[in-house]
Amino acid sequence: MERSRKLDHDGLAVIHAAKKRRQRSTAKKKASLRKKGSKLKPTRRNKASTKKHKHPRHRKPQALLPLYHEGPLQKAYAAGYKEGVYQGGEAIVERLVPSGKILPGVTAEALIQSGLMQHQAEMLEITDSVQVADEIRSALDERRSFSLVRLGDGELLTLAYGTIIASSEAHELGAFLPYAGVPLPDASVQSLLMDSIQKADYVGVPMSRRPEFQMLLFAISKHYGWNLTQNRLTNSLINYQLHHHGLLLSILAEQRVLLIGNKAAETADRMRKQGVNVVGSISPVRGFEDIERVLEQCRMYEFDICLIAAGVPAVVLCQRIASGDKKVAIDIGHLADQMIQESQQ
Question: Distance of alpha carbon 115 from its chain centroid, rounded?
């Protein structure tokens, strides 16, 4: 019994000493213990360090796991993805193949490809950035009007509000519309917007066929009786393409430039540093109700080309400025924000 107690006492002493040594260990020792799966409790953080970390270590948000990961969540995601691909492709083919028949060796993708060939005559041309830039230069050289407007989610939701999409759903999807200058779309705003789109020289349209982009665009076209063939079309991201390909600065060279939008002054500073002759800036633009005031202010400047970043009202401003004063007007949208960010880097 005494020997057993002595062994217990000695064993506890050894364990206690080992714990002391581990507590005094360096970062290298801690790393070694982690590799061995040590269950030692991590040292507590003081209050100051706790405030800096919003989540405990074990709750840090993790990146999406790759499809081959064996975790249950990723397995569920992979299964859902696989089912979605089937329902959106082969299930449709399965439903359309005549009863009592099968179609071996032909995938849904191959059927779509062959089907597209039959509709080539109905496809509309999307003008690339180089050609658009050439046409802008021609308009500037000839001193004629030219308007380039773009349709993004803001413009499409404004036109769909209460017409194609129920007001409640559109309000939920378009929670950002007040920021884009459209507090509550109504028939007068929609009519003004559609009229400017139809009269514009170029209309940028989305290339994605997602429900909220091209599918919504086509529904809007049908609802308002707007034949897409009556306008020349380009990519709705034409503003970024002109900038990234170095075409915008070459267009603005030796031209008098007017900027319009809530960040027009900051954008003007950026452009002046690049040698652009910015003759003035107009801001802010407080939605559709501010359009007439902005147009009146435009008449105070002598300019050749106007760049506008004013949300949805930019469509109307572009078309009205171009047609009324025989100027070139381009909707640059969030490119203005990007240019400001670039100047701060």
Answer: 30
- Domain holding 176, by residue range, is 126-239
- The beta strands (E) that lie in the chain are given as 126-127, 146-150, 202-205, 232-235, 256-261, 277-282, 305-309, 328-331
Residues 231 and 255 in one domain: no
Helices then strands, counting H and E runs in the chain, come out as 17, 8
Contacts of residue 74, defined as CB under 8 A and 6 or more positions apart, other chains included, come to 65, 66, 67
40-59 confidence digits (pLDDT tens): 444 454 444 444 444 444 44
Beta strand pairing call for 277-282 and 305-309: unpaired
Are both 256 and 230 inside the same structural domain?
Answer: no
Q: What is the mean pLDDT of residues 226-254?
A: 97
Find the CATH number of the domain harbouring 305.
3.40.50.2300
Collapsing DSSP to helix, strand or coil, 330 comes out as strand
Q: How many CA atoms lie within 13 A of 86 on its CB side?
A: 7
